[in-house]
Amino acid sequence: MKLRKRKVWMAMALSLAAGGARADGLQIYGILDNSLEYLSNASVNANGSKASVLRASNGSQAPNRFGFKGSEDLGGGLKAIMQLEAGFNLNTGLLQQGGRMFGRQAYVGLQNEWGALTLGRQKNLIYDAFLELDPLSYYSYSLPALDAQFVGKADNAIKYSGNFNGVKIAGLFSTGYDASIANGAQVPGEWRVGKEYGVSVGYANGPVNVSLTYDQQQGTSVATQGTTTQRVAAGASYAIGNWKPYVGYQWYLSNVPGVAGRNELYFAGVQYRPVTEVILSGAIYYNNITSANQHPYLLAANAAYLLSKRTQLFAEVGFSRNQNGSNLGVTGYGMSVVPGSNQLGVAVGLAHYF
Questions:
Q1: How many angstroms separate the Cα of 354 from the Cα of each of 65, 84, 349?
Q2: Where does it reside (predicted)?
Q3: Alpha-carbon distance 117 to 254, whole Å?
Q4: CA atoms of 340 and 328, how far apart (whole Å)
């Protein structure tokens, strides 16, 4: 039954692409990214010794995806807009985001000079703001490794975003941000279950890019709906010739069972383009987890060489430092790392955009 549903969705997507080509225009796009990766202290053998791993790693530079994006001119400066975007594992062909067909984005909306109003599964506001404010541009050894919400999406979301001469404002409300739980978190009579709220303000013009974002999620069950997970994130970058330094901060507080805690995340880094074809980046991410008296950090660097406008070679190296039982791996907390152990990661790969 699941396979049949997926075939139906694929047929609908291809039909949409064929029909859209005759309208105002439908863009078909995607990213194919794969690498060979080495990780130290990735697991523990039966004899108690720590083991490293050499593996094919999917989406080291950018998560693999394909999508459809289109618009229709309705007149008077008003446009209908839509986007469908699927994430998948290049090594296995399996869908990501819990098996959702269009798990990365799936929305429809209206747009004019006053901004865009969209409805569906969408990126949260932290994702929107910090993709441009992460020194390592969301490579696998970067900001999302410290907090997955930096690449978070919200189901059942209504989002507004506007840009007024560089001043950016946005707001998001989700009636149930995770449809993988019972009733899609939209439980009759239980208003707060699974809700997500977000607001963001920023300025991007010329060399300057700054952003301040607030995000709040309610517990995803009737019993936990009164609990909250809150984040306040701020970041900035400034281009100086071929250099672009970055700084950022995030405050996190949660009393939701299973993820409860308090921490402060600090990061800083720089990008450098000595020539057009080369991008060099480096950063440090430090997490002060006050609720657990842990202070892990991640040091990372990467280099990309653009073979063309759509194809590039890349290499990245990362080192995560753990203490007091923390389990930060170079790709994320609890991700292929022995708790309390440091980890070295190295990846070399190829990415193609279409």
A1: 10, 15, 17
A2: Cell outer membrane
A3: 29
A4: 8
What's the token pair of residue 11? 């047929």
Q: Give the number of C-alpha atoms closer than 13 A to the C-alpha of residue 245, restricted to the C-beta side.
A: 3
For the stretch 137-180, pLDDT in tens is 999 999 999 999 999 999 999 999 999 999 999 999 999 999 98
Residue 187 carries which side chain, given as an amino acid letter? V
**What mean pLDDT comes out for the span 183-199?**
90
Backbone angles phi, psi at 142, to 5 degrees: -160, -160
Backbone CA torsion sign across 16, 21, 26, 32? positive
* CATH class belonging to 2-353: mainly beta
CB-based contacts of 142, cutoff 8 Å, min separation 6: 134, 135, 136, 283, 285, 300
* Termini Cα distance of the chain: 32
Which is more confident, 183 or 4?
A: 183
The rounded distance, in Å, linking the Cα atoms of 181 and 225 is 13
Per 3-state DSSP, what percentage of the chain is helix, strand, and coil (rounded to 5)? Answer: 10, 55, 35
- In the chain, what are the domain boundaries? 2-353
Q: Give the DSSP letter string of 281-323.
A: EEEEEEEEBTTTTB--EEEEEEEEEESSSSEEEEEEEEEEE--
